[in-house]
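Re-run with default settings, no changes from the original entry. Doing this only to confirm the output is reproducible before filing.
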Amino acid sequence: MDTPKGKRLRSLDKTHIWHPFTQMREWQKEEPIVIERAKGNLLIDTEGNTYIDGVSSLWVNLHGHGKKTIDRAIKEQLGKVSHSTLLGLSNIPSIELAERLSKVVPKGLKRVFYSDNGSTAVEIALKMAFQYWQLKGEKRTRFVAFTGAYHGDTVGAMSVGEIDVFVKRFNPLLFKTYRAIYPYCYRCPLKKSHPECNLICVESLKKILSRHHKYIAACIIEPMVQGAAGIVVSPPGFLKEVSRLCKEYGILLIADEVATGFGRTGRMFACEHEGVKPDFLCLAKGITGGYLPLAATLTTDTVYKTFLGRYEDYNAFFHGHTYTGNQLGCAAAIANLDVFDHENTIKNLGPKTSLFSQLLSYIRELKHVGDIRNIGLMAGIELVQARKSKKPFPPSDRIGYRVCKEASKGGVFIRPIGDTIILMPPLSIKKSELRRMVQVVYDSILEVTG
C-alpha cells in the first residue's frame, strides 16, 4: 500500500535530504522506507509495514524502542531543564552519570570528558594523549593504529582510520600514522592459521613500538572486533598482547569502544574479555540506549593530573562542545544503566548469543558465504563469488545491497558493508525474532546469489 502521506514524504526526502554513506544518484531511483514510529525491536513505516531492527538503528539501540524506563527519565528531565552549558557550570545528570560510568568501566578510568558522538570521543582521546606528552616535556607526536581500522569521520579520527572508501580522498588533510597489522585471518595474505596470523600481527606492532616508541603518544584499537571492517573478530589473546606491548614500551592505550561498548560483545565492555585496562576509553552509540546523542572519553587520574597547573601556564585541555554534558542525554544514559542493573541484561544475554551462533551456522552452508564472524550479538557475513578462492563479487553487482533490500521485503531491516552483511540486533531481541531475522537473511542470500 502506497499512502499519499508516504508518497509525499519520499518525494520530499529526495528533494532535500543528503543521506550519510549513500550514493545519492542510486537513492533517487529507489523508494525509500520512511519510518514513522517504533515499538520494542520493530520499526514501523508510513505504510504500516514492520521491520525487525536488525542493526539497532546503526548499532545504538540496546533495549528496544519505547523503553519505559528511559522514556520516563527523559520526560522527568524535560520538566527540570533540557540543557545548560558545562563551561563554567555543572549539572546533576552529568555528575551522576560520571560517577556511574566510573563504576562500570575497566578499573582506573575515573575522569569523564563528555562530547556528542563517537568521532569526537576519539578526537578527544587523541588530543589528550598528544598534550599529555607535551606537558611531560616529551615530543611524542605520532600514533599507532591498525589496518582496517575505523574510528570516525572527523579529521583526527580518519587519520587513525584506514578503510580507503572512507579516507582515501582526504589523505592530504590527514596526519601520518604508524600502521600495525590487524588479524583479519580470513583474508590473511600469508594464508596463515589463526594462531600464526595472531603472532604475525603482534610482531608487526612490536616492531613499530621497538623502533619508534620515543615518538609515539598512543596506540588506538577497537577492542576484540573491528566493526566497519566487517565485524572482524580478533583471535584470543591479541588484545591482551597489544595492551602488554603498550605497557612494555610506555605507550598510552586508547580503547575505542564506541561500537563494542554496553553489551554488544556479550560483556559490558569488550576490554573485559581479556582483562585489559586502557588509558583511555571512548564511548558513544549505546551509551543512551539509542535515544540521544552523547559520548564520553574516560581516562585515568594519572593523565588528568598532568593537565593541572597555574592559570597562566595554560595547561588546561582547550576542547569542548556546545552540548557537552547535556542533561537530557545524561539522564537517558543513567536510565540505560538502570535497565542493565534491574534487568540483568548482561547475564541474560548468554542464551541469546548461543542461539545466535547456532543459527548463523546454517548460513555457513550457503555456497556464496565465505566467512561468518561473530561475537556476542554482532555478526558479519562475508559473501563471495567462490568460497574456495575467496574471490569477491564485482562492486557493480551490489550483492550486499541487494541482499539487504530483499531482507526488507521479509520484514527485516539490515545494512551491508560492501558485500558483508551486518547483523547487530538490540540486546532485547526475542529468541523468536532472532530466529526470524536469521531465516530472512538466509532466504535473502539464497534469492540474490542463487
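The mean pLDDT is 96. The longest strand covers residues 109-115.
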